[in-house]
Design goal:
The protein is α/β, with parallel strands linked by helices. It contains 7 helices and 11 strands. An 8-stranded mixed sheet has the order 5-3-2-6-9-10-1-11, with helices on one face.
Length: 262
């Protein structure tokens, strides 16, 4: 596992975008796993800038980690739901790069048969040849995607009940700003499983801010434990890179360098 520590959020975002861009350049038809939330916004802005400088996404396929149950892409007006992750991805990345609509896969929270849909999503990832590079953020309780504490490290794409901490964090980050009552916030989500994530050939996790410092230290330095889902990354058999800003890295015992390998 490579741990890269940058001075700021902007530097972290540029570093992450360069890693993703390198993957796209080396394999123009690569499969990317993408994440939502506030953390990757800067990375996506950098990817848009790189696209304007020539980075080509026309052959890239993407699979998103998760989507709220009850929200998602409607075939008639796919980005009409303000708090859906489908709309987030469209606004923050897809509308500004040359990716083909048919190459975008986001879990459909509007599915009438979510369990069947989850199986279909897993099969589509396999048909695409698997994920070459999976981008991740880190939840305040150590979750990856919406894999909450206690999730099996072998889990696949499924419906997951969201914990109070996740609901609190996401309400403050998105719903409160949109003046949406908390009672209207979805309580469940479709998420790639931890097992699905670990099947990616390369994993890139980005984390910023002092409020994540404690959970970063637990994820990278405490014993591997399903109660801290992100500790599963240390079981990944492929390449794993963690890019942090200084604040997120402040509780790590590994200090004094901009780059550490463990």
């Amino acid at each position: 596992m490579d741990i890269i520590i940058k001075d700021s959020y902007d530097q972290m975002s540029r570093c992450a975008a360069e890693i993703i861009a390198s993957q796209v350049k080396s394999k123009p038809d690569c499969v990317l796993g993408l994440a939502t939330g506030s953390t990757p916004i800067g990375t996506y802005k950098e990817l848009i800038r790189l696209h304007r400088e020539g980075l080509d996404f026309s052959r890239v396929k993407t699979f998103n980690l998760d989507e709220y149950l009850g929200l998602g892409m409607d075939l008639e007006k796919p980005y009409d739901l303000d708090q859906s992750y489908a709309r987030f991805m469209y606004e923050e990345l897809f509308k500004d790069i040359n990716i083909k609509k048919e190459n975008i896969y986001i879990p459909d929270g509007l599915s009438q048969d979510p369990e069947k849909y989850c199986s279909w999503y897993e099969e589509e990832i396999k048909k695409a040849g698997g994920i070459d590079l999976q981008l991740l953020g880190l939840g305040g309780n150590g979750h990856l995607g919406f894999n909450e504490p206690g999730s099996s490290f072998e889990s696949k794409t499924r419906v997951e009940a969201l914990t109070k901490q996740t609901l609190d964090d996401n309400y403050k980050a998105f719903y409160q700003k949109a003046n949406i009552p908390r009672s209207q916030m979805p309580q469940f989500a479709i998420t790639m499983g931890i097992g699905t994530i670990l099947e990616a050939r390369n994993i890139l996790m980005i984390v910023n801010g002092s409020k994540k410092a404690d959970i970063v230290a637990k994820c990278l330095e405490s014993p591997i434990d399903s109660q801290i889902p992100a500790t599963a990354l240390r079981l990944h058999k492929g390449s794993t890179t963690v890019v942090l800003d200084k604040e997120a890295a402040s509780k790590l015992k590994l200090t004094g360098a901009t780059h550490q390998s463990v």
